[in-house]
Specification:
It is a single chain. By secondary structure, this protein is mainly alpha-helical. It is built from ten helices and no strands. Helix 2 packs across helix 5 and helix 2 packs across helix 7 (115-123). The longest helix has 27 residues, at 130-156. The radius of gyration is 19 Å and the shape is elongated. It starts with 9 loop residues before the first helix and ends in a 6-residue tail after the last helix.
Amino acid sequence: MSEPSGAVSAELSSELWPDVQPDAARRLMLAGVESFARRGFHATTTRDIAGRAGMSPAALYVHFPSKAALLFAISKYGHEQTLHLVERVMARPDPATAKMTALVEDFVAWHARRHTVARVVQYELQALPEAEYEEVGRLRRRIEQLVRELIAEGVAAGEFTVPEPRTAARAVLSLGVDVARWYSERMRKSPAALGREYAGLVLNMLGAKSG
């Protein structure tokens, strides 16, 4: 069944990427997210994306030189938002346990609330050209580094007991990222509630001391 032109889900039509200008570029990014999420990058055509945005196929090239460039913009913004989330938590003058709690709550809630975007950002990554893939890879490595440093901080303070912070950091991030794969608006549990539940699981995994 064909889908109406200009139709995007409620999740995507809410306040997402408000700083992207002009509005046509933002509409194309929103349409690209939904198209890639539904069909996958390789099965999606520029006509699919433009039609969903309510534009002609030629309009896409005014703002993005290729379908891959559109995917790169989506992926880069998504990773930058995640990095800013982690940086905000790391800047808090709190003990490692409190920062990890806040980080997991925010990280998981973001991946649930923006699950369609997150699926594209995380699972279409291999479709990026080499140079763009490497740029996004730098953002991913920075996110992992900050989480690893937080875990190491907790270990040094006697708050966490894990033998290898690097492996633990990847496990923490993988738990949050995977939420985007299965979460939907039909879930009875809210993104915030899921974030709190995952925070408890992560603290147990890290051997955090109660209290």
